[in-house]
Specification:
single chain, Spore Coat Polysaccharide Biosynthesis Protein SpsA, Chain A, globular
Length: 258
Protein backbone atom coordinates (compact mmCIF):
# COMPACT_ATOMS: atom_id res chain seq x y z
CA UNK A 1 0.00 0.00 0.00
CA UNK A 2 1.33 3.42 -1.00
CA UNK A 3 0.44 6.80 0.45
CA UNK A 4 0.58 9.93 -1.71
CA UNK A 5 1.16 13.14 0.24
CA UNK A 6 0.55 16.55 -1.34
CA UNK A 7 3.44 18.75 -0.23
CA UNK A 8 3.86 21.31 -2.99
CA UNK A 9 1.64 24.27 -2.09
CA UNK A 10 2.78 27.77 -1.17
CA UNK A 11 1.19 27.86 2.29
CA UNK A 12 0.46 31.58 2.02
CA UNK A 13 -1.54 31.74 5.27
CA UNK A 14 1.61 30.67 7.11
CA UNK A 15 3.94 33.11 5.39
CA UNK A 16 5.73 33.74 8.69
CA UNK A 17 7.11 30.21 8.35
CA UNK A 18 6.76 29.32 4.68
CA UNK A 19 9.02 32.12 3.58
CA UNK A 20 11.80 29.88 4.90
CA UNK A 21 10.56 26.30 4.46
CA UNK A 22 7.59 24.66 2.71
CA UNK A 23 4.61 24.10 4.99
CA UNK A 24 5.13 20.31 5.34
CA UNK A 25 8.58 21.01 6.85
CA UNK A 26 7.29 23.34 9.56
CA UNK A 27 8.18 21.65 12.81
CA UNK A 28 5.94 20.49 15.61
CA UNK A 29 7.89 19.09 18.54
CA UNK A 30 11.16 19.36 16.62
CA UNK A 31 9.89 17.23 13.71
CA UNK A 32 8.38 18.35 10.39
CA UNK A 33 4.63 18.10 9.92
CA UNK A 34 5.36 15.70 7.08
CA UNK A 35 7.14 13.33 9.49
CA UNK A 36 4.13 13.30 11.82
CA UNK A 37 1.80 12.40 8.93
CA UNK A 38 4.09 9.61 7.78
CA UNK A 39 4.30 8.22 11.32
CA UNK A 40 0.50 8.01 11.42
CA UNK A 41 0.47 5.90 8.26
CA UNK A 42 3.45 3.83 9.35
CA UNK A 43 1.69 2.97 12.63
CA UNK A 44 -0.80 1.08 10.44
CA UNK A 45 1.78 -0.60 8.23
CA UNK A 46 1.87 1.90 5.36
CA UNK A 47 5.57 2.62 4.77
CA UNK A 48 5.77 3.39 1.04
CA UNK A 49 5.34 7.11 0.41
CA UNK A 50 5.12 9.29 -2.67
CA UNK A 51 5.65 12.94 -1.77
CA UNK A 52 4.41 15.48 -4.34
CA UNK A 53 6.89 18.33 -4.10
CA UNK A 54 6.58 21.83 -5.52
CA UNK A 55 7.34 25.05 -3.65
CA UNK A 56 10.81 24.74 -2.05
CA UNK A 57 10.70 21.03 -2.83
CA UNK A 58 14.49 20.86 -2.80
CA UNK A 59 14.36 21.34 0.99
CA UNK A 60 12.04 18.34 1.35
CA UNK A 61 14.43 16.28 -0.77
CA UNK A 62 17.39 17.45 1.34
CA UNK A 63 15.57 16.47 4.53
CA UNK A 64 15.16 12.85 3.45
CA UNK A 65 18.54 12.55 1.74
CA UNK A 66 20.15 13.55 5.04
CA UNK A 67 17.64 11.82 7.31
CA UNK A 68 19.92 8.94 8.36
CA UNK A 69 22.83 11.13 9.41
CA UNK A 70 20.59 13.88 10.80
CA UNK A 71 18.94 11.50 13.26
CA UNK A 72 21.90 9.34 14.25
CA UNK A 73 24.94 9.91 16.45
CA UNK A 74 28.03 10.02 14.26
CA UNK A 75 31.80 10.27 14.53
CA UNK A 76 33.56 12.14 11.73
CA UNK A 77 37.28 11.50 11.31
CA UNK A 78 38.58 14.53 9.47
CA UNK A 79 41.97 12.93 8.84
CA UNK A 80 40.54 10.48 6.31
CA UNK A 81 37.07 11.93 5.82
CA UNK A 82 35.38 8.82 7.24
CA UNK A 83 32.05 8.72 9.06
CA UNK A 84 31.10 6.17 11.70
CA UNK A 85 27.46 5.77 12.71
CA UNK A 86 27.26 5.42 16.48
CA UNK A 87 23.52 5.21 17.13
CA UNK A 88 21.54 4.54 13.97
CA UNK A 89 18.09 6.11 13.98
CA UNK A 90 15.89 5.75 10.95
CA UNK A 91 12.49 4.56 9.74
CA UNK A 92 11.42 1.56 7.60
CA UNK A 93 10.16 3.93 4.93
CA UNK A 94 10.54 4.04 1.18
CA UNK A 95 10.10 7.67 0.11
CA UNK A 96 9.73 8.73 -3.52
CA UNK A 97 10.10 12.49 -3.88
CA UNK A 98 8.62 13.86 -7.11
CA UNK A 99 8.83 17.40 -8.45
CA UNK A 100 5.21 18.00 -9.49
CA UNK A 101 5.79 21.59 -10.57
CA UNK A 102 5.66 24.92 -8.73
CA UNK A 103 2.20 25.92 -9.95
CA UNK A 104 0.35 22.60 -10.25
CA UNK A 105 -2.94 22.36 -8.37
CA UNK A 106 -3.89 19.45 -6.13
CA UNK A 107 -5.32 17.28 -8.89
CA UNK A 108 -2.41 18.00 -11.17
CA UNK A 109 0.06 16.90 -8.52
CA UNK A 110 -1.73 13.57 -8.06
CA UNK A 111 -1.80 12.95 -11.81
CA UNK A 112 1.91 13.70 -12.14
CA UNK A 113 2.83 10.75 -9.89
CA UNK A 114 0.75 8.24 -11.84
CA UNK A 115 3.76 6.14 -12.87
CA UNK A 116 4.77 5.74 -9.21
CA UNK A 117 1.29 4.75 -8.05
CA UNK A 118 0.91 1.80 -10.40
CA UNK A 119 -2.32 -0.15 -10.68
CA UNK A 120 -3.21 -0.64 -7.04
CA UNK A 121 -5.41 1.04 -4.43
CA UNK A 122 -3.56 3.89 -2.72
CA UNK A 123 -3.95 6.37 0.12
CA UNK A 124 -3.76 10.12 -0.39
CA UNK A 125 -3.66 13.04 2.02
CA UNK A 126 -2.47 16.60 2.42
CA UNK A 127 0.85 17.61 3.96
CA UNK A 128 -0.68 19.76 6.68
CA UNK A 129 -3.14 17.68 8.71
CA UNK A 130 -2.82 15.15 11.53
CA UNK A 131 -5.36 12.81 13.10
CA UNK A 132 -5.74 9.72 15.26
CA UNK A 133 -7.60 8.06 12.40
CA UNK A 134 -7.36 4.27 12.12
CA UNK A 135 -5.97 3.80 8.62
CA UNK A 136 -6.67 0.07 8.77
CA UNK A 137 -10.37 0.64 9.40
CA UNK A 138 -10.45 3.30 6.68
CA UNK A 139 -8.99 0.85 4.15
CA UNK A 140 -11.40 -1.90 5.18
CA UNK A 141 -14.34 0.51 4.85
CA UNK A 142 -13.20 1.57 1.38
CA UNK A 143 -12.97 -2.02 0.20
CA UNK A 144 -16.42 -2.79 1.59
CA UNK A 145 -18.01 0.05 -0.41
CA UNK A 146 -16.71 -0.87 -3.84
CA UNK A 147 -16.42 2.77 -4.95
CA UNK A 148 -13.47 4.40 -6.69
CA UNK A 149 -12.85 6.85 -3.86
CA UNK A 150 -13.38 7.30 -0.14
CA UNK A 151 -12.99 10.59 1.69
CA UNK A 152 -12.69 10.96 5.44
CA UNK A 153 -15.27 13.28 6.99
CA UNK A 154 -14.24 15.06 10.18
CA UNK A 155 -15.81 17.65 12.45
CA UNK A 156 -14.72 21.27 12.30
CA UNK A 157 -16.55 24.61 11.93
CA UNK A 158 -17.33 26.01 8.56
CA UNK A 159 -14.43 27.35 6.51
CA UNK A 160 -13.86 24.17 4.50
CA UNK A 161 -15.83 22.38 1.77
CA UNK A 162 -18.80 20.64 3.37
CA UNK A 163 -19.91 17.08 2.59
CA UNK A 164 -23.62 16.26 2.31
CA UNK A 165 -24.84 12.76 3.07
CA UNK A 166 -27.97 11.38 4.68
CA UNK A 167 -28.75 8.79 7.32
CA UNK A 168 -26.53 5.73 7.25
CA UNK A 169 -25.90 5.93 3.50
CA UNK A 170 -22.09 6.03 3.07
CA UNK A 171 -22.30 7.65 -0.37
CA UNK A 172 -21.64 11.38 -0.64
CA UNK A 173 -24.61 13.20 -2.21
CA UNK A 174 -23.12 16.62 -2.80
CA UNK A 175 -20.05 18.78 -2.09
CA UNK A 176 -20.75 22.37 -1.15
CA UNK A 177 -18.32 25.25 -1.27
CA UNK A 178 -16.98 26.80 1.91
CA UNK A 179 -19.50 28.69 4.03
CA UNK A 180 -19.53 30.03 7.53
CA UNK A 181 -23.05 28.64 7.76
CA UNK A 182 -21.96 25.10 6.94
CA UNK A 183 -22.22 22.40 9.57
CA UNK A 184 -19.44 20.56 11.29
CA UNK A 185 -18.69 17.83 8.74
CA UNK A 186 -15.83 18.62 6.36
CA UNK A 187 -13.34 17.00 4.03
CA UNK A 188 -10.47 15.97 6.31
CA UNK A 189 -8.31 14.42 3.61
CA UNK A 190 -7.11 10.87 4.33
CA UNK A 191 -8.52 9.52 1.08
CA UNK A 192 -8.38 5.97 -0.23
CA UNK A 193 -8.42 5.90 -4.03
CA UNK A 194 -8.45 3.46 -6.90
CA UNK A 195 -6.01 4.26 -9.73
CA UNK A 196 -8.95 4.88 -12.10
CA UNK A 197 -9.56 8.22 -10.37
CA UNK A 198 -6.51 9.56 -12.19
CA UNK A 199 -8.59 9.52 -15.38
CA UNK A 200 -10.88 12.09 -13.75
CA UNK A 201 -8.02 14.61 -13.61
CA UNK A 202 -7.40 16.67 -16.76
CA UNK A 203 -3.97 18.10 -15.98
CA UNK A 204 -1.82 20.41 -13.88
CA UNK A 205 -4.50 23.08 -13.44
CA UNK A 206 -7.13 20.68 -12.12
CA UNK A 207 -8.14 21.08 -8.49
CA UNK A 208 -8.83 17.64 -7.01
CA UNK A 209 -11.53 18.99 -4.70
CA UNK A 210 -13.54 20.46 -7.59
CA UNK A 211 -14.18 18.75 -10.96
CA UNK A 212 -12.81 15.26 -10.14
CA UNK A 213 -14.61 14.93 -6.80
CA UNK A 214 -17.81 16.44 -8.18
CA UNK A 215 -17.79 13.92 -11.02
CA UNK A 216 -17.16 11.04 -8.62
CA UNK A 217 -20.12 12.24 -6.54
CA UNK A 218 -22.36 12.46 -9.62
CA UNK A 219 -21.44 8.90 -10.61
CA UNK A 220 -21.96 7.52 -7.10
CA UNK A 221 -18.28 6.67 -6.79
CA UNK A 222 -17.38 8.66 -3.66
CA UNK A 223 -17.98 7.13 -0.22
CA UNK A 224 -17.51 8.89 3.10
CA UNK A 225 -15.73 7.42 6.11
CA UNK A 226 -16.80 9.24 9.27
CA UNK A 227 -14.02 9.91 11.75
CA UNK A 228 -15.26 11.25 15.08
CA UNK A 229 -11.86 11.41 16.73
CA UNK A 230 -9.12 14.03 16.66
CA UNK A 231 -8.27 15.93 13.48
CA UNK A 232 -6.42 19.20 13.08
CA UNK A 233 -4.83 20.88 10.11
CA UNK A 234 -2.12 23.53 10.16
CA UNK A 235 -3.49 26.32 8.03
CA UNK A 236 -2.48 29.34 10.14
CA UNK A 237 0.06 30.32 12.77
CA UNK A 238 -2.67 29.84 15.38
CA UNK A 239 -3.08 26.23 14.22
CA UNK A 240 0.65 25.67 14.52
CA UNK A 241 0.69 27.03 18.06
CA UNK A 242 -2.25 24.78 18.96
CA UNK A 243 -0.49 21.67 17.65
CA UNK A 244 2.72 22.64 19.42
CA UNK A 245 0.88 23.13 22.70
CA UNK A 246 -0.71 19.69 22.35
CA UNK A 247 2.70 18.18 21.71
CA UNK A 248 4.24 20.01 24.66
CA UNK A 249 1.43 18.67 26.84
CA UNK A 250 2.98 15.22 26.50
CA UNK A 251 0.04 13.37 24.96
CA UNK A 252 -0.68 14.72 21.47
CA UNK A 253 -3.84 12.97 20.25
CA UNK A 254 -2.39 12.08 16.84
CA UNK A 255 0.68 10.32 18.32
CA UNK A 256 -0.63 6.78 17.82
CA UNK A 257 2.86 5.29 17.46
CA UNK A 258 5.04 4.07 20.32
Amino acid sequence: MKAVILAGGFGTRLSEETGIVPKPLIEIGGRPMLWHIMKIYAAHGVNDFIVCCGYKGNLIKDYFVNYYHRNSDITVDLSDNSIEIRRPATEPWRVTLVDTGPDSLTGGRIKRVREHIGGETFCMTYGDGVSNIDIGKLLAFHRSQGTLATVTAVHLPGRFGALDFSGDDPKVKRIREKSLQDGQTINGGFFVLEPQVLDYIDGDLTTWEEEPLQRLVAEGELSVYRHDGFWQNMDTLRDKHLLQSLWDGGAPPWKIWS
